[in-house]
Amino acid sequence: MHSHIIILCRSLTRSQRAAEALRRAGVFASVTKAPHRANPGGCAYGVKIGERNLAAARALLRREGIDCGTLLRLSPAGELEEVPE
């Protein structure tokens, strides 16, 4: 099984824009609520993608001018870790 990346965004709307841009480019992306461990306030959203698509997703979002924040790796075992920039 492969790890997933959650790209945290500042709002649900921004997460939706990011996911749509990625899908248009052929990258499977879904909007997800940020894991509670990463967001104790419970109100952040992000975009979940396969880790193999990370480099392409970062480049695309930069080109599209969609500002996103922290990157989290979600392992198949459910472990969560921050991905360095």
List key phrases describing it:
85 residues, alpha+beta, Alpha-Beta Plaits, five-stranded antiparallel β-sheet, 5 strands, 27% strand, globular
Query: How many strand units?
Result: 5
The CATH level-2 architecture is identified as 2-Layer Sandwich
Query: If helices are DSSP runs of H or I spanning 4 or more residues, what is the number of helices?
Result: 2
Distance between the termini: 24 Å
Q: Main sheet, how many strands, which sense, barrel?
A: 5 strands, antiparallel
Rounded to the nearest angstrom, the radius of gyration is 12 Å
In which order are the strands of the major sheet placed?
2-3-1-4-5
In N-to-C order, the SSE pattern is EHEEHEE
Measured as a percent range, the helix fraction is 25-40%
Indicate how many domains the architecture comprises. 1
Strand content: 25-35%
CATH C-level category: Alpha Beta
Q: Would you tell me the overall average pLDDT?
A: 89
Q: What is the CATH topology?
A: Alpha-Beta Plaits
Output the structural class.
Answer: alpha+beta
